[in-house]
Amino acid sequence: MSFLSQNASTILTLTIEHLWLTGAAMFFAAAIAIPAGILLARSPRWARPVIGVANILQTIPSLAMFGFLLPLPWLGDRAARIAIVALTAYALLPILRNTYAGIRGIDPALVEVARALGLTSRQRLLKIELPLATSFILAGLRTATVTCVGIATIAAAVGAGGLGELIFRGVASVDNRLVLAGAIPAALLALAADAALGLLERITAVKR
Amino acid sequence: MTPAIHFRDLSFRLPNGNLLLDRISLALGEGTTTAILGRSGSGKTTLLRTVNRLLEPTAGEVLLSGVNARDRDLIPLRRSIGYVIQEVGLFPHFTLERNVALVLEAQSLPLADRLGRAHSLLAAVGLDPATFARRYPRQLSGGQRQRAGLARALAADPPILLMDEPFGALDPLTRLEMQQMMRSLLQRFRKTVLLVTHDLDEALYLAHRIILLDSGRILADLTPAEFLHSPQPEVQAYVQAYAQAFRRTPPAGHPPAGPPSQTIPFADPEAAQ
């Protein structure tokens, strides 16, 4: 207990740092992957290669990814930059895939009617396709967020901070209390993000 | 008089070489209803879809009131043509009133006008706006959905109405009700209607003219009365196949009619909602 009270402010600071790294990465990933998914849904012949590239990014081991980015100019100057870029790369695939699948999966009769009614391409997107695909896109965001909360612990390896810092310190000093002080809040963050986005997903799901 | 819809030497060929429509020429007068009959794969739907340019013909042209459809802007063209399909295609995330008025919303009409129009159309197709305007498609029966689909197709008061097997998925009783409603609606609103169906009965009841399509060609172009008595073998085959259904006898050993079963009071499913 005294361990907790001694380290409470550190844990809190690192949790906030962790949230910030993940949040920033999710923001950038969504900003890239949602529009990309929409474009792919419009021209599906590009879907395979583009999703393939996102897939390859996903398979790079996270420690290696942080290592690759370290020597790059500008990016390598600040550890947080590396962490955010790496996390963004991991978050791309689930968001991209779900946006694409969500739009492509809309009942073809609805798409045909939307065209036949004389909706412009933009109106079809905003009034029909995006609302009907929202819960799918959110499911992608949820997967991406949970993954990134976990991977963000590794960002401490390049000095980006976050809860991984406690874990790495604990491992180095063979102090299980430190490891748990990092691991437990990280797990709770992942669960909370999962629950919150899951709720949002259910709210936005279109009932049929 | 310039025909409302004029197909001129219209052909449609798939990229794989299959010819779905083979030099169709057909002129449909304004305010008339034309039924297109034919087997599955005869090109009925393909022909219909060239009118609102969901498909572009690979040869020939479609003239709408004398103007080549290809020369018109796609969006206004489609807004001026009502489209009803078997699946209806109501948007599940919109209420009925929003579904019906979506064309008007797309044209940025003021909300009050849109709702007024939606409500009067819902009433016209037999859906009381006070009850139905705020409902979602999932809360409706199949017949009610088809009614709403029809109201939506009429929202922008289009001079042309394309209907692709509109009542094909409905039970026989509901289908009959819909056909009756359709007939009275067509007498009220003067529309040029192109109706794809494989229900001869429906064609006879609703259309001024029946086109029989086979392998992308017009086999017959007759009035309902002529159609029933045509000497043409293909037409006769069609009429006979249809009549056959009524002549069938129940299988042998059918249990004799027993005492009249107890009358089960049941609520009209449409009224119950």
How does this structure look, described?
Chain A is mostly helical and 208 residues long. Helices cover 80% and strands 0% of the residues of chain A. Chain A has one domain (2-102, 132-204): MetI-like (MetI-like fold, Orthogonal Bundle), CATH 1.10.3720. Chain A has helices spanning 2-42, 47-59, 62-69, 79-104, 108-116, 121-151, 164-172, 176-204. In chain A, helix 1 packs across helix 4, helix 1 (2-42) runs parallel beside helix 8 (176-204) and helix 2 packs antiparallel against helix 4. Helix content of chain B is 38%, strand content 22%. Chain B contains twelve helices and ten strands. A six-stranded mixed beta sheet of chain B has the order 6-7-8-3-9-10, with helices on both faces. In chain B, strands 2-1-4-5 form a four-stranded antiparallel beta sheet, with helices on one face. The N and C termini of chain B lie far apart (47 Å). Chains A and B meet through helix 5 and helix 6 of A and helix 2, strand 6 and helix 4 of B.
